[in-house]
Structures are given as C-alpha cells and as structure tokens.
Amino acid sequence: MKKFAVISGFLGSGKTTTMMALTKHYSAHFGKAAMISNDLGEGVLLADHRLAQLGGCRALQISDECICFCHDVLTEKLEACYSEGCDLVVSDIPGFGVGAQEHVYHGLTENYPGQFELAPFTVLIEPRNLRLLREGKAGDMGTILDAQLKEADLIVLSKCELLVAQEREEGLKWLAELYPWTEQIAVSAASGEGLDALCLALRDGKASLRHPKIDYDADDLQDAMGSLSEYYLQYRALVCCNDFDGNAYLTELAEKIRGAVGAAGREIPHMKLLAWAPEGDFGKADILGTDRPVELPHRFIQPCTDIAVILNTSAACPDAALNAIIGEAVKEVSEKYQLELTIFKKDHFSLGE
Ligand SMILES: Nc1nc2c(ncn2[C@@H]2O[C@H](COP(=O)(O)OP(=O)(O)OP(=O)(O)O)[C@@H](O)[C@H]2O)c(=O)[nH]1
Ligand SMILES: [Mg+2]
After folding, report:
1. What is the pTM of this model?
2. Quick check: 337 and 249 in contact, CB under 8 A?
3. Residue ranges of the domains in the chain?
4. How far apart are CA 3 and CA 197, in angstroms?
5. What is 229-350's CATH number, 3.40.50.970, 3.30.9.10, 3.30.70.360, 3.30.70.1450?
C-alpha cells in the first residue's frame, strides 16, 4: 500500500505534533509510517523537521516550496519512503495554506495516475480557533479557517484533551453541521486520545477528490496574506557561564518577542523556538498568539554548554518590523545569558507581495 495524506490546518493547530504522534502510533500498531514537514525557506533546516527527528520519528522535509507546486520533489520523497517499506506517509502544508486539495490531490491524480493511494484530505482545527469561528470572532483568520475546512474530507479537532466532553461534542456537532460531507474526529497528541481512530481513518479511508467550492472573498484572503511575513534564523550559542538554564533562555526570548510584537499592534499566530544540545537533549518554546503566554512543550533535562537554535515563524507583521524585533530580542536576551552566537542562516520575507 502506498497511502499518502495531506494534513492541513492553520498555524499552530497542531499539525507537526499530531503527525509525530500519528507516525509513532501507526508504526507501533499498524505498519510503517513517515512524515514530511513542508514549510517555506530556501535551503533551511525546518524547526518542525528537526523536532520530528529529535522526537524519534521517520521524518523528511520539503522547505523550498509548498508541496502544491513541486510534485516532482514530493513524489521523489514519497517513493523514498515507500521503498523503505512505509505504508503511510503524511505531509503538512504551510499553516496559512489553502488549495492543496486541488493542487496536491488532483495534481498527483492527473500527473501520476495510479501511483499513490490518497487518504482522506485531513484538516486540523484547534479548540480556540473553533470557538472563535463559531462565535464569528475569527476576523481575517476566519476566512482562511473556513476555506481550509471546506477542503477537508476528514476534520480533526486537535488538542481535544483541553475540552470537557460536552464542549467536544458540541464542537464536533457544529463542524458536522457546517461541513456535512466530512468525517470528524477529536484527537489529542498530548494524551494519545483519538490516535487509533485517526490511523484507521487514514489507512482505510479514501480521498473524496472533490473540487471544493471555496467561495471566500479573494480580497479578504489577500488582505490577510498581505500582512504575513516569514522569518527563519538558525544559530549556534556557546555558553560562557556555568549555570545556564536553557529552558529559561528559550522562555525569556519568546516572551520578549511576543511582548514586542503585541506592543507594535501586530500578531504572531505561531513562533517555534527549538534548541538542542549535541547529545540530543532539547527544549522548545512556542508563541501561540500575543494574548497567550509562551508555552514550553519540551524542556531541556540536562544543563547544556553548546546549543543549536532554530527560530521559525509566520507572523502578521511587516517583514522589516519583525526582523528588527527578533534581531533585537535575540541580541539582548543572549547577551544577558552570556551566550556567544554564530549565525548559520537567516531568511525572512513578506508573503503576498
Ligand atoms: N495541549 C495540547 N497542545 C498541543 C497538542 N498538539 C499540539 N499542541 C501544541 O500546540 C502548539 C502548536 O503545535 P504544532 O504541532 O507545532 O502546530 P502546527 O500546526 O504544526 O504549527 P505550524 O507549523 O506553525 O503551522 C505547540 O505548542 C504544541 O505543543 C495537543 O494535543 N494538546
Ligand atoms: Mg508545524
């Protein structure tokens, strides 16, 4: 079986974490699975890909382009996985992405007929964004959320352990009423709930290959896209003092950026700040909006003296302003922690121009 599924969903909805949990669960109970992280940034090591590697997943990345527009690279990676005995491969698309049903599913069907079995087109939505969408308070983001859900064959209500049973049922019911052609599953990568059902849905289910009518107002989407920028930074930090606390460093740096973006009246839906030591210990801090405290989904266990860091974000903030904010925060917080930095890679640009 050469099964392939696209995992779509907004920035921070849980795609990478869910794909990691899914890949491991599937490999432990059903067969062999691999994941592809897809994001933008020429020649970069994606934070999501590095995280998947550090988490022990069979992982690949495509970073130069959205998989919507590089079928040759995608099919090469897929075939590499299948030739290693994988039954299922999942790939995400960049978190603001819409249109992969058409570009990826129909593109592969037309250009590589019979080569792959397409699993239900899967879209994640997290509890907070579902609530905002239901209450009509999602703003420009609502346009993208709705367009993504219209593409879905399978909707995953992610992070479901954050909801009590009644909220979960109500959320799933609302999704079923608004997007009646879909199947819906509640999944928590954190607790493992729903992973079995997700594995089965992808293994046994089939893509509908619909041509979804995404009747969003193109101007709204263009407005939302136009304010987005991408930022990527990879550096090495050498620790000069003995009592360096990697978790405190990541938290303080992320909090500083969150505060500065918020003070500038801009938004940062998801920033990933991943750091690892040569022996494989790692920590991760996430910004999930200027109105939410920084999360530390993974902590360094050991003290470290030499770390590699990747900072990767899509923000609703002009490129120049974001570059200035992040540059200043990295400098200031790293100096405070007496770190000696070597920048390996920096790439930042506006989207929608
Ligand atoms: N509580 C909880 N948090 C989760 C769960 N899954 C993911 N998260 C957290 O949600 C945040 C975003 O998760 P990611 O998996 O990075 O989201 P993503 O959709 O890949 O984000 P982008 O790559 O920016 O598009 C991280 O802080 C995760 O730790 C979950 O099941 N429960
Ligand atoms: Mg991701």
Report:
1. 0.97
2. yes
3. 3-220, 229-350
4. 16
5. 3.30.70.360
Q: Which of 75, 12, 87, 79 is closest to 288 using CA atoms? A: 12
Give the whole-angstrom CA distance, residue 337 versus residue 243. Answer: 9
| Ligand 1 pocket check for 13: Cβ under 6 Å | yes
Dist. CA 150–CA 165, nearest whole Å: 25
Q: 20, exposed or middle or buried, with CB in 10 Å at 0-12, 13-18, 19+? A: buried
Q: Identify the weakest region by mean pLDDT among 62-71, 98-107, 218-227, 330-339.
A: 218-227
CATH number for the region 3-220 comes to 3.40.50.300
Atom 13 of ligand 1: nearest residue by CA position:
14
pLDDT in tens, 228-286: 899 999 999 999 877 899 999 999 999 999 999 999 999 999 999 999 999 999 999 99
In one letter, which amino acid is 5? A
Residue 113 pLDDT greater than 90, yes or no = yes
Span from the CA of 223 to the centroid of ligand 2 (angstroms): 23
